[in-house]
Every structure is written in C-alpha cells, then in structure tokens.
Amino acid sequence: MKILLTGSTGYIGRRLLPELVEAGHTVVCPVRDARRFDFEDFNDDFLKHVEVIECDFLDKESLKKLPPNIDVAYYLIHSLTSNSTEFSQLEATTAENFNAYINATKASQVIYLGGIANDAELSVHLSSRRNVENILKESNVPITVLRSAIIIGSGGASFEIIRDLVEKLPVMIAPKWLNSRCQPIGIANVLEYLVGVLGNKKAFDQTFDIGGKDVLTYKQMLLQFAEVRGLKRYIITVPVLTIKLSSLWLYLVTSTSYRLARNLVDSMKNEVVVRNNEIDRIVKIDKLSYKESLKRTFTKISEKQVVSSWKDSFINPNFNNSFLRQVEAPKHGCFKDIRTYSFKRDPHEVIDNIWAIGGERGWYYGNFLWKIRGFIDKLVGGVGLRRGRRSPTDLKGGDALDFWRVLYANKKEMRLLLFAEMRLPGDAWLEFRIKKNDSEYSLIQSATFRPLGVWGRIYWYLVLPFHGPIFRNMARNLISFRETNSPSRGSNLKMKQND
Questions:
Q1: Which end of the chain is more exposed for a tag (fewer CB within 10 A), N or C?
Q2: Strand (E) or helix (H) holding 146
C-alpha cells in the first residue's frame, strides 16, 4: 500500500515509519523541513520506499504537492506544546486542511491517534483532541480512531516527567489530582495497534480506547517507577495546590516547559481509563504491564536506542521555525566571539566530542556556570538545561540540545550550528567548524549574538567577562577530551589541557 504518514519526524511517527516500510509499504512523509527527516541509519533499500515532501498542514496551498494516489493516511499531528490559547485553533486548522486534501485522494482509511476522552467535562488539551477527532470524521474517508492513555517509552514526555520527579525528589508534596486513575500503555503496544488496524475493514469508522494491562493512579505510577529503579519515595497529596501552582512546581522540577506542564496538570483531573476495549477482538496483542513497559524503556536507554523524543518539539512559542532553514549565523549588526585552535589529532575524534556536547556530557568547561545560566533561564520562563538531548552521541537538524536548537549538523562537512532557545534580549548562535590547513586541522568556534535594542547590548557586555574563560577552555577541551573505559572504575572522562 501507499501510505501517507503525517508526523513522521515526531515521537510516534519516527517509530512507526520503520514498521511500515519493513511490512512492505511505500510511505509518503510530509514534513515542514526536510532536514529534520534524517534516517541516515537506514540503508538505501529502506529509503527507496520513502518519499519526503516539504509542506505544512497550516498552509493549504502547500498540500498540493502531496500525491492523490494514497491508500491509507495516518494523522499524527499534535500541537500540545503550543500556547494554550492557540493550540486548539492550530489543531482544528490542520485537521480541516487535512480533510480538504484527503477528500481529493483515493484513500480508503484514515487512522488517527488521539487521547482517551470519556469524561463529560474535559481539559483544554483533551477537548482539542476530541475536536480534531470530530473534524476528521467529517471527511469522506472511513476513519479509525485510537484513543490512547499515557504512553510509556524512551524519550516520551510522560516517561521523562515521571523520571524527573522520582529520581530527583525523595519526598513529594503533590496535588490531589495524583489520585486520578489512568491506564498507561507501552509505546510497543501503541505501535502494534497502529499497524494492526491498517487496512482492517473491521476497524473502519470505529473508535477504540487503547491502554495497557494496569489501571493505576498517578501516585501508584510514581511509586512503581521508584520500585523499578530501586528507590524509596514518599508522596503526600494535598488539596491546596492549584493548577497554576502545580504547573509551576512541575515546570521547575522537571524538564518540561511551563505550557506543557499546564496542559498535563489540567488533564490530570480527567480519568484516562479504557472503557471501549473492542479493539482487543480485532487486533490481538500481548499487553505489557506498566512495570514491563518501564523495564523495556530502560533497556532501550541503556542501549542508547532512543529513536525520538518529545523534547525535540518546538516548546518555545517565540522560536521561529524558519530559523531551521538558516544554515549560517548572521554577519552584520552582531557581536562575535571567535576562537580558532590548531591541532594534529584525528579530526573525527574531535567531531565526536562536538557531537556529544551538552546533556550528561556537559559543555567541557564550567558546567556549574552553564547550570546557573540554565537555572536563571528556568526562573524567567525559559527552557533551562534540564531538557538535555535525545541521544548522547547523535545530533540531527531540529534536535533540542539543552537550551539550544540544532540548526545544522553535518559530520561530513565537520560543522554544527546551534540557535539559542533560552530567554535573551536578542538572538544567539553557537557554531563549530573543523577545517584542514596543510598538515593540521583547525577548530573554529564562533559565538554570535544579535542584540535587541539597548538591553541586548547591555546584556552582551555584562556576560563578556565570562566569555573568555568559558569559550577558550571549551574549545581547547573539545580538542583534547578523551573518554576511556576502565573495568574497575567504569567510564572516566579525561581532559588534557592545551595551555
């Protein structure tokens, strides 16, 4: 079959694509930025079955690029991380534009993954998902709706937030909504359902709830997570924490954005428990328990197989997605800090160091200063450093990297360009290049800041005293850093100063 897969670079879509290709289907992937579609780990035979088309479902005209000879379409577009006053309208518009396109095709099925929304009074987030569902049902194409509970998987928002809470806080004072019930489902089971309903006429024009084996309260989920990690945790629920205070608490403690925290907390008042389990008669799978899903997830993390992460969505509403098309930092009207260092080491080893920057590895010098800057960013409503990175060694265009966004990452060209998503009175870029000069190589590290008004200029001069030691030593340590593995001591990080 020829399948249209929206959201192919998103958390679910990136994992679903290989499943579809391996099943022998041809997959059309509409993306806003083709550079974010990076499946270099797959061979040419895989890519022969994939067609990438740049378009935007908020731009109806751009959808004319999509082919009409589609057999099935997956609708996996989600705007949860947008501004709460806007994401409902964004989701409605994209669904309406999708309908206009799909009605002009020969598609026989649309498959939509939404959220369980059985309560009479729903949160803004779940109301929006229900509204999208209703809009998609207005198309002329039979639709299969899968309403999912909380999804547990490596890189998933729910998993990462629970992980932050459990691993950082021995004692939690939490809101009463922690007693709400939910039915978490492992990402592996979600994919099985998504593939299982494909072309299955018994699922046409049907709506199903999907969940895992266990029905738990959020409190039980946290405590069972602690058991899996071998931790002892205590949770005290109190009735006085409002949605706003709970969201702020979640935002400060975890790697989530405030907007996402607000949407998640608001949704916790609703029970997300399977009521319509007719899907189990149509698609027979072995359901995982919550603990089984957690153990599988940690196995993937330990094997460094985190395929996708919610953190790579654009959680900063002020971030202009068009920046992803900018592969050069601006040259005019900017302040710059440029460091050039020559070296005779294998350049690929230095590139590997650059590609591992941030996250658990850190920034090669003054990590405590970077953490302070991240904490300040959190206090003023920014993303902070807790977001980390999807993979410890891999970077792709569009990836989140602490409080940076990857604009361009090309190992063959030996070049990485980052754009700052932290709160700043201006725009900032950080670039790393390696160039060959006769018998040696040079690392060129460039920090570029384009100030916004007088405050932008004041900010630059205030932080200027820190630039010297931070940027100088960061560049030198990128060149000299070596990672060794000792059987008795585990992984040791070694930096040899070039001073």
A1: C
A2: strand 143-148
